[in-house]
Amino acid sequence: MSDGGPAVRRLSDWDREQLLSLADEFGSPLYVTDLQRVRENCLRLREAFPEAHVSYAVKAHTGKAVLETVLDAGLDAECASAGEVERALAAGFPGNRIRYTAVNPPAADLDHVVSRWEDNPEMTVTVGAEDTVGRLTERGFDGRLCLRANPGVGAGHHEKVTTGGHAKFGIPIDRVPSVAEDVRDDVELVGVHAHAGSGISGDDLSAHRELVRRMGDLARAIGGLEFVDVGGGFGVPYHDDEPPLDLAAVADATRDALGDTDAQLAVEPGRYVVADAGVLLSAVNTVKEVPETTVVGIDAGMTTLLRPAMYDAYHAISNLSRPDADTVSTTIAGPVCETSDVFAEDRPLARPARGDVLAIGNAGAYGYEMASTYNSRPRPPEVVLDDDGPRVARRRETLDDVVTLERTASEHPPN
Ligand code: LLP
């Protein structure tokens, strides 16, 4: 085993006693993020793609402690908004290690990013529409630009996260060479980019391979590029019996499909870096026996972890408080007044009782980031684990936080 640790960290690999004591100390629901695992995941990526430029797609988890860890581990930051650029800068990423991927960017984002670029002229901006170039140059931008292509092929764990081939993202690939020619007078064209989608598994490799092949052809057709970015999307196993992605095989397939090019390969995974570094702890509020099932009501809901409600995503769940109890078939549901607020159905779980603490696995990616205050539910805190032990990285929101925008509305006119 290299310093990159095992290829996968399952829910059962977490220290049960430690998680129980964290729930006891910090309350629930509670996100726990292990920074050492973030480091290991970064290292495995760098080992699999030693010749490539590897960025972390910040959107998966923007917490400062995670960003600092990723920076230290040698990955750059791929940011999807002005806010993410701001957070990357605040975490210490220098401009030359930040890429901003503009997706239908609001004017305020462009204003902000261009003003940041003025102080950090090595920052790269990726555009997915011809008119975004004009919107940048009219703001004075003449820096490093990357063109995002719609490669016409995509993949992902759900249609809602299959990006490649969707008209929203990127310039149709056959138009990119002529756009490249047009923009070269105004900006420094440094790369091309495409992203297939999120949660690519071993079975989806054919789409990834085809995307990379098309991007290699594109980079050769344009010529003189610094990099060709083939996106992120590397999947992690959510089911306990699912094998981990063979990263070396993905890297080999990527190199093979790219072919010879002077442009450096670039990848930008998000989920792979943080998914199995995070767990969500939640306490049982209610246990209700009904003819079809045992309903287990917990204090986390779709407002805490949206993925099951939004994508029917599977997350492993265990009852930390009862490692040895018999299992029963359960429906595990949150406190939100919506039918989709269900984490699992027909799920075997050690027979739960009120007050038990459940752990929900692979909560590090798109967990806290997609949390909301729907139903006026405050968002949970996040505790990070590092060499110095646990510390609160984001505090628990209060009911006062939830209503504060109304309370202070008169102090902040809409514009
Ligand atoms: N690059 C671009 C341009 C992206 O849009 C994304 C993700 C990534 C990289 C990173 O993809 P990853 O390696 O994390 O799969 N909320 C969804 C995932 C949405 C992903 C959006 N874009 C989920 O929870 O499954």
UniProtKB/TrEMBL annotation:
It holds the Pfam family Orn_Arg_deC_N. Substrate binds at R271, R307, Y311, E338, Y366. Pathway: Amino-acid biosynthesis; L-lysine biosynthesis via DAP pathway; L-lysine from DL-2,6-diaminopimelate: step 1/1. Pyridoxal 5'-phosphate binds at G233, E268, P269, G270, R271, Y366. The keyword Lyase applies. Belongs to the Orn/Lys/Arg decarboxylase class-II family. LysA subfamily. PROSITE patterns: ODR_DC_2_1, ODR_DC_2_2. It comes from Haloferax marinum. Residues 372-415 are annotated as: Disordered. GO terms for molecular function: diaminopimelate decarboxylase activity; pyridoxal phosphate binding. SUPFAM superfamilies: Alanine racemase C-terminal domain-like (SSF50621), PLP-binding barrel (SSF51419). Residues 36-275 form the Orn/DAP/Arg decarboxylase 2 N-terminal domain. GO terms for biological process: lysine biosynthetic process via diaminopimelate. CDD domains: PLPDE_III_DapDC. The active site is at C337 (proton donor). This is Diaminopimelate decarboxylase.
